[in-house]
Design brief:
The complex is a heterodimer. Chain A starts with a strand and ends with a strand. Chain A has 14 helices and 21 strands. By secondary structure, chain A is of the alpha+beta class. Chain B has a nine-stranded mixed sheet, with helices on both faces. The relative contact order of chain B is 0.16. In chain B, a hairpin with a 5-residue loop joins β7 and β8. By secondary structure, chain B is of the alpha/beta class. The chains are: A alpha+beta, B alpha/beta. β13 of chain A pairs antiparallel with β3 of chain B.
Chain lengths: 499, 245
């Protein structure tokens, strides 16, 4: 026999508002939303209810009742979000929890209540915990969802309906308690059928003719003769795998086996969900209570155990097993959906290439540290240091073409270095220059090629670049910083070497 | 007579078999072999085929030579990458300016630079990169390399078929390594031209100091419009001198 608990959070939204804004306590306020060109009250606080402001009222009318009424925005998605969070919390009471919109939860409590001693203690625990966290709550327990729902909403009697007693519990309740459609209820009111007992004994054929098949179904659901579907929520499970060892593990080989086993399990789950790990953490619980932790990161979502194992392999040496490790926990805290194989379908070779290269990059940065991998894209600047910009990912494509019309050296010094030159004024290339103690006589030269500072980025003097060649054929990129001054001196620098 | 012919045939066949085992594949008949436009330099290689499956060692002693070698290596890597290849450039103190590579037929965004912080990671990183057969070429800048290390890299290359270009900048010793080929690239002065001023195209003296099963040699080359070009004698020497000689 099944047992269900219905939880009714009577003032779900109002309670939520009071939790986040305690200063509204004791004041009348409503949550309102626009509906067909008028603003309608969707939920009202207890003080507002006392004044007669009910949900469904037009806001203008409510304002007439209470001019200083506080009006808050009603968020349509909020009830589902709140109930979802509460349902995840309620998994402590039963593994099967369903959301009952707009303001309730249903728990499949079959075989759960004895863990709290008795059904009374079970229900009391649920109610007290929810009440202590600020929610106005009513609960009921019965064999069917329908009966539990009805009792929680409409009965003042003892909320636990014993097995098979749904019928007697329902008799005194109003017809609303069967979750009937509004026109059916209206019809019943007109006919004077205010309570369930006034029509429940009528023959089914009569009920069907008068009120339709749904009414019969709803009665059946409450009494347990018709099956009612129950859709429990599925909380997202963290990507985590555990492996405990019989004997404490002390050797690198043992750790590697553990990593491999865990990664295979983890990757199997990741593949099933179409996800890839961007980060993976291995925690090793030692028998002396210490936790050893190693972490890897990947440059793209990966669900290949062999690849991630290679990354971990580099870190195995940093794990200190000491007296032994008794538990391994592998977790992927950061996951990303795997890129669909679209590109791979179009271009088999290059799609595969990118994955392989991404894996190579992961291995390199796992050992040598982050920030060793660079890839550059062209930038729209002439200033040589800014003409390239670092690409963020492997798949970034250049937005502009690389310019080949500009003569740029193949080797560029990180910092331009001072040189001593003798150069004719005003703008001729130098005749000779001294760099690192060697004198280079300039035989050929191109230039000057003036590159201005970009004033919106930084200020400073412009550079007049010359490409020069000496007697031996060495080619240099040198520049004069700014204009000559009155004494005809200027600073000269070497910035690069041409091939 | 017949037996002698047979013998020479046999020797030729065995020789080509050995070369094939060492990673040199003879060009199939009718297939145009990729010579990277190196032209006369190809004569240095066994059977005139550029050894793709091998490690090439470039030695440079000065900053000028380093720049020339970088340019030459970039041009070679560019030929290997073609349109959609990828290349990894490993080093510790990188001075290569990615923008400058575009003049040598390399799209700089297809080059992944690995700028290691520690020298001891260099060999490991180069080997890892060579293992990745999705790459077209790996350029490594490493100062010292002993026989054992080079042998290891050469074996990796033979497995993955990724060409390795090792740039040894002013090494202390020019010890023997198991690279297929040892190059030395030096810059050459531009052509003496009174009509067009300026420094002109990159010109190099390309020297192959050692090549396995091949003929070392030295050639003046220039890189012009995306291809190598032998500098002809007349252009190389002064016009007056060539008339007299």
């Amino acid at each position: 026999m099944k047992r269900y608990v219905a939880i009714w959070l009577r003032h779900l939204l109002v309670d939520r508002v009071l939790l986040t804004r305690p200063e509204l306590e004791g004041k009348p306020f409503v949550l309102a939303a626009k509906e067909r060109n008028r603003v309608v009250v969707k939920a009202s606080s207890r003080d507002a209810l006392k004044l007669g402001i009910d949900p469904g009222m037009v806001l203008a009318d409510a304002r007439a009742v209470q001019p200083d009424l506080e009006v808050l925005d009603y968020d349509q998605a909020l009830p589902e979000k709140l109930l979802g969070a509460l349902a995840e919390w309620a998994i402590r009471y039963s593994p099967l929890v369903a959301i009952d919109l707009p303001d309730g939860l249903i728990l499949d409590a079959t075989g759960c209540a004895h863990l709290w001693g008795s059904e009374t203690a079970y229900l009391k625990d649920i109610a007290t915990r929810l009440k202590s966290s600020g929610y106005d709550v009513r609960t009921a327990m019965a064999d069917t969802i329908g009966a539990a729902w009805a009792v929680s909403r409409y009965s003042r009697a003892f909320p636990i309906i014993a097995e098979g007693e749904q019928l007697s519990a329902l008799l005194q309740l109003p017809s609303h308690a069967l979750r009937l459609e509004a026109p059916v209820i209206e019809k019943m009111q007109k006919l004077g059928l205010y309570q369930i007992k006034s029509f429940i004994y009528m023959p089914p054929s009569v009920l069907r003719r008068r009120f339709g098949q749904t009414t019969l179904d709803q009665i059946g659901k409450a009494l347990g003769t018709t099956h009612e579907p129950f859709e429990p929520i599925r909380p997202a499970e963290p990507y985590q795998e555990r492996l405990s060892s019989l004997e404490p593990i002390q050797t690198a080989a043992g750790i590697e086996i553990a990593i491999q086993t865990l990664l295979e399990k983890l990757c199997e789950r990741l593949v099933k969900d179409g996800k890839g790990a961007r980060q993976a953490v291995l925690r090793c619980y030692r028998i002396d209570g210490q936790i050893q932790q190693v972490q890897i990161g990947t440059s793209g979502p990966s669900c290949r155990a062999s690849h991630m194992f290679k990354l971990f392999e580099l870190k195995v040496a940093s794990i200190e097993p000491a007296l032994g490790i008794e538990l391994f926990v592998m977790e992927a805290p950061v996951t990303e959906p795997l890129a669909n194989g679209q590109e791979a379908l179009w271009d088999l070779s290059s799609g595969n290439k990118i994955t392989q290269v991404a894996e190579l990059i992961d291995r390199l940065s796992a050992r040598a540290g982050t920030g060793v991998i660079h890839r550059y894209l062209p930038a729209q600047h002439h200033w040589p240091e800014r003409a390239i910009t670092e690409a963020v990912s492997l798949t970034d494509q250049p937005e502009i073409d690389w310019r080949t019309d500009q003569h740029r050296p193949v080797q560029l010094l990180a910092q331009p270095e001072r040189i001593i030159v003798s150069a004719p004024v005003p703008d001729y290339p130098p005749m000779l220059f001294r760099y690192k103690g060697d004198i280079h006589r300039v035989k050929k030269a191109d230039g000057p090629n003036r590159i201005e500072q970009e004033w919106w980025i930084s200020d400073g003097m412009h550079r007049d670049y010359y490409a020069v060649e000496d007697e031996q054929g060495g080619r240099y990129w040198i520049f004069r910083l700014g204009h000559y001054n009155e004494e005809l001196t200027a600073e000269w620098f070497i910035h690069g070497f041409f091939a | 007579m017949e037996t002698a012919l047979k013998k020479s045939e046999l020797v030729a066949r065995l020789r080509s078999d050995i070369l094939a085992l060492q990673g040199f594949r003879a060009p199939a008949l009718g297939v145009k072999h990729d010579d990277f436009g190196l032209g006369p330099v190809m004569k240095a290689f066994p059977q005139g085929v550029f050894p793709r499956v091998g490690m090439h060692e470039f030695i440079s002693q000065s900053a000028e030579q380093t720049a020339a070698t970088s340019g030459f290596m970039a041009a070679l890597a560019g030929k290997m990458m073609k349109q959609d290849g990828l290349c990894v450039w490993v080093g510790t103190r990188r001075t290569v300016y990615p923008f400058g590579l575009s003049q040598f037929g390399v799209s700089p965004d297809r080059v992944i630079f690995v700028d290691l912080k520690k020298d001891k990671d260099l060999l490991w990183a180069i080997e890892e990169a060579l293992k990745c057969d999705a790459l077209s070429a790996v350029v490594g800048e490493i100062k010292e390399l002993n026989l054992t290390e080079s042998r290891r890299l050469q074996l990796t290359v033979e497995e993955s078929k990724v060409t390795g270009l090792l740039h040894r900048v002013s090494p202390r010793l020019s010890n023997p390594t198991s690279a297929v080929c040892r190059w030395r690239i030096s810059p050459l002065p531009g052509v003496e031209d009174t009509v067009l001023p300026g420094i002109g195209f990159p010109r190099w003296q390309v020297e192959i100091q050692k090549v396995r099963n091949g003929e070392p040699g030295s050639w003046p080359l220039q890189f012009r419009d995306g291809s190598f070009e032998l500098i002809s004698e007349s252009a190389f020497f002064h016009p007056y001198l060539s008339k007299v000689g």
